[in-house]
Design brief:
It contains 9 helices and 5 strands. The protein is an alpha+beta fold and about 250 residues long. Among the domains are: about 60 residues, Arc Repressor Mutant, subunit A (Orthogonal Bundle); about 100 residues, Glutaredoxin (3-Layer(aba) Sandwich). Strands 2-3-1-4-5 form a 5-stranded mixed beta sheet, covered by helices on one side. Strand 4 and strand 5 form a beta hairpin. Helix 2 runs antiparallel to helix 7. Its EC number is 1.6.5.11. This is NADH-quinone oxidoreductase subunit NuoE. One of its GO terms (molecular function) is 2 iron, 2 sulfur cluster binding. Belongs to the complex I 24 kDa subunit family.
Length: about 250
């Protein structure tokens, strides 16, 4: 049987989502004035259950949001954060965009890839089991001032080197969770997916970590020391007339 090129495929796992997941989905949907607006967090919710977005996950989202499966699949295939194959316990994302690549990101990716024996969006170990790792290239992670960077389950590890990244991966495989440079304590991929969906089992513990590095705040710190401030916003603003449409 031939395969149509460009048509996304989702694995049919036969999974049946639990009443607890249905209840969480209902709570998430209730946060939005229009139910379809909850699609992005619901895709993260189903991904937190199976470790990826499966065909039953697509069907679940379509059913609870009164959408077609085609509409759900169109969104799930647009964003790279939605995975179509099972992820490991940890997702390691190495930035290989221009600046990080120039400062060593490519070497970091090559080192980690060689150690794990996998390439982009491939998993070393049985997906979901302790110590299993999915590796991926990442586009800009918005931390150029700390380049080169990588993320584990979307938590930042800044100013990396090939050796430091390898030590980090070895620790993950051994069941250790080294603290990120900033942000929340490291957990695992499925737990983070619940949080991205908006389901927090312990919110207080997740917001205690530092959120910004000193280099990121250097500009505002300098402005404070030199008493520089942006002009105050005026109370009213007069906008020029727009030319008529042709």
């Amino acid at each position: 049987m031939s395969t149509r090129i460009g048509v996304p495929e989702f694995v049919d796992t036969g999974w049946v989502f639990s009443p607890a997941t249905h209840a969480e989905a209902t709570e998430i949907i209730g946060r939005y004035p229009q139910s379809r607006s909850a699609l992005l967090p619901l895709l993260h919710l189903v991904q937190s259950v199976e470790g990826f977005v499966s065909r039953p996950g697509i069907a679940f989202c379509a059913r609870v949001l009164d959408l077609t499966e085609a509409e759900v699949a169109a969104v799930a295939t647009f964003y790279t954060m939605y995975k179509r194959s099972p992820c490991g316990q940890h997702l390691v994302s190495v930035c290989t965009n221009a600046l990080c690549a120039a400062l060593g990101g490519d070497a970091i990716y090559a080192t980690v890839s060689a150690h794990l024996g996998v390439g982009h969006e491939e998993t070393a170990g049985e997906p979901g089991t302790p110590g299993s790792i999915t590796l991926e290239h990442a586009e800009c992670l918005a931390a150029c001032d700390m380049a080169p960077v990588l993320q584990v389950n979307y938590e930042y590890y800044d100013n990396q080197t090939p050796d430091a990244a390898l030590d980090l991966v070895l620790a993950l495989q051994a069941g250790v969770k080294p603290p990120p440079t900033r942000g929340a304590p490291l957990t695992d991929f499925r737990s983070v997916e619940r949080e991205i969906a908006g389901v927090y089992d312990d919110l207080a513990a997740r917001v205690e970590g530092p959120s910004a590095a000193p280099s990121t705040l250097r500009g505002v710190t300098l402005a404070e020391h030199t008493d520089q401030r942006a002009p105050a916003m005026p109370d009213t603003v007069t906008f020029p007339d727009l030319p008529p449409k042709k």
